Amino acid sequence: MSNKDILEQLDESKFVLSELIKNNDSIDVINSIANKFIETIRSGKKILIAGNGGSASDSQHIAGELVGRFNYDRPGVAAFSLNTDTSIITAIGNDYGYENIFSRQIQAVGSSGDIFLGISTSGTSKNIINGFKEAKKKNMINVGFCGSKLGEFDEHCELVFRSPSKDTPKIQEIHIIVAHIICSILEKTLFPKY
User: For residue 13, with 0-12 CB atoms within 10 Å meaning exposed, 13-18 middle and 19 or more buried, which class applies?
Assistant: First the structure.
């Protein structure tokens, strides 16, 4: 790979980020999601997160930032990635089908007022959609992270953040930037440094 190839990739990332920065509606959605996370934690509720592939890793990453720390030491936040228990995932996948690996976990541990953050670059992942459906049954708050393509998230979620790209790696790059912003806002609001 030449330096030119690297610079092209960086320019593409810069372009997608600049598209996000120019989109006031997306900035408002990020702010609304951060506020919803804050309200949920203040109410003694929890955040459940799930995704597939790279988005599964993002799910774990976000939960880790909330439970552990983001910028500084403070109490942990009740957040759980539904991607982490391979015994549960494989048992549900085997007995009920892969499309139910998240909905079954939400059925087991989700409560009214909790948040389910579903991450899917396509916005059409069946197991995430089924997770949203189960979360609605439990009177949970559905938040979606997806790409710019129209998927099914709008009909299932109270809030949807759309990364301004159709390219999976670029969508995921923006998702983690936005997740970091939300973690930072939550941390500063709930646990201001003194």
Answer: middle
